[in-house]
């Protein structure tokens, strides 16, 4: 089970980190604690009431659109471009459902429209937290936490106009995103005058981070009836999205391992030469077939970037498995020294039976043991019969 499941502060990944030494965000004006149970999730709710009506900021809900397992888009009404007035914060509510959403990755993207700030040094701060919204106080200081709640900070400005936040295995319930625009001065941040900043907001849920990239594969896993998605990294790569290359294999190592694995199929050359010399042409053709498809299947089955596929992976795998089983089958049948017509019938029946078995269960153990034991049984019967007649004929 993921470590951060059910935690109030899940692990997050952000591409642009907040600058150090930012001023702090004051707490809400209400002295009463605000919890998730006091905020309806399907209606427009408001922050704690104050005497000033300008500080009563509405919380705008989002529209949920489920596309697939752990694939959800959250649409904002009259969005995705959001206008943030200079004197108010824009607050949005994102509802994550239990079981359905907790096993994926919550993604948040924020982009500032530089033309909307008209050259002013404006910074848009975003605070994403679970359970209750956080707001700004009169001193216009910024801090994404209170005495009992801590969240994730996002910021965009003219210099860095795009920021992304990713939270693997987010806690279910309602998440609140508070956006506020402030102007930077020599004395810190203060409210802007008559400038409405415009930002592009995108919020969505995905199974894995960036689909695990080039060196990973996103898989759905189940542990104790809990369904979640995780990256299976290859070639020594690691991390939430298979982006950690501290222990990754080098290109030369991947190339060498691929070449050695493919060249190992040259071991089929001596059996082919012996079969051709002994006039076992059908058996030799099966060995050549196996050698060819085994070489290119292993070249296509590499975990890193040294990959070469001449056709679809599934076709190469089927032909490699079929050739391997047929090589065992024709070799044992040939060793039985049966009559030509009987041998040809067994070859044909073996090819059809093995093809059917591979379609049913390509990785089954009995796909190899079954035909091998059956062929060995035929060879044993043929040899015992030959010895029996040779014994009594003498």
List keywords for this structure.
alpha+beta, twelve-stranded mixed β-sheet, Jelly Rolls, EGF-like domain-containing protein, 2 domains, membrane, 394 residues, two-stranded antiparallel ribbon
Provide an overview of this structure.
The chain is α+β, with helices and mostly antiparallel strands. The protein has 2 domains: 13-207, GOLD domain (Jelly Rolls, Sandwich), CATH 2.60.120.680; 251-393. Helices cover 29% and strands 26% of the residues. It has helices at 251-263, 269-277, 281-300, 313-335, 340-360, 366-393, and strands at residues 13-14, 59-68, 71-76, 81-84, 90-96, 105-112, 122-130, 152-157, 162-168, 173-185, 188-190, 197-206, 216-223, 226-233. Strands 1, 2, 3, 4, 5, 6, 7, 8, 9, 10, 11 and 12 form a 12-stranded mixed β-sheet that branches. α1 (251-263) packs antiparallel against α3, α2 runs antiparallel to α3 (281-300) and α3 runs antiparallel to α4 (313-335).
């Amino acid at each position: 089970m993921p470590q951060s499941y059910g935690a109030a502060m899940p692990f997050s990944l952000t591409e642009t980190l907040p600058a150090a030494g930012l001023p702090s965000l004051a707490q809400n004006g209400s002295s009463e604690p605000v919890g998730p149970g006091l905020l309806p999730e399907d209606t427009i709710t408001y922050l704690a009431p104050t005497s000033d009506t300008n500080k009563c900021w509405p919380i705008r809900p989002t529209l949920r659109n489920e596309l697939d397992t752990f694939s959800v888009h959250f649409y904002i009404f009259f969005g995705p471009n959001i206008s943030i007035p200079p004197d108010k914060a824009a607050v949005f509510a994102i509802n994550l459902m239990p079981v359905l959403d907790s096993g994926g990755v919550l993604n948040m993207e924020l982009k500032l429209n530089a033309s909307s700030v008209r050259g002013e040094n404006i910074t848009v701060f975003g605070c994403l937290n679970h359970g209750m919204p956080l707001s700004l106080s009169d001193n216009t200081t910024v801090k994404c936490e209170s005495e009992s709640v801590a969240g994730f900070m996002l910021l965009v400005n003219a210099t860095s106009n795009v920021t992304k936040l990713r939270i693997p295995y987010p806690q279910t319930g309602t998440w609140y995103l508070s956006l506020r625009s402030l102007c930077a001065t020599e004395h810190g941040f203060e409210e802007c005058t008559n400038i409405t900043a415009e930002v592009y907001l995108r919020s969505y849920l995905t199974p894995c981070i960036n689909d695990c990239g080039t060196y990973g594969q996103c898989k759905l896993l189940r542990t104790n009836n809990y369904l979640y998605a995780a990256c299976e990294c290859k070639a020594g790569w690691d991390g939430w999205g298979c982006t950690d290359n501290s222990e990754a294999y080098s290109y030369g190592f991947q190339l060498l391992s691929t070449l050695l694995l493919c060249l190992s199929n040259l071991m089929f050359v001596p059996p082919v030469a012996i079969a051709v010399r002994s006039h076992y042409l059908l058996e030799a053709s099966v060995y050549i077939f196996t050698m060819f498809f085994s070489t290119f299947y292993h070249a296509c089955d590499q975990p890193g970037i040294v990959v070469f596929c001449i056709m679809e992976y599934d076709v190469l795998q089927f032909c490699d498995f079929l050739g391997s089983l047929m090589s065992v089958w024709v070799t044992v049948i040939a060793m039985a020294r049966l009559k030509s017509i009987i041998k040809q019938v067994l070859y044909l029946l073996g090819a059809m039976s093995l093809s059917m078995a591979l379609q049913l269960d390509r990785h089954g153990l009995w796909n190899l043991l079954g035909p091998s034991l059956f062929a060995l049984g035929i060879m044993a019967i043929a040899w015992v019969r030959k010895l029996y007649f040779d014994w009594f004929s003498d």
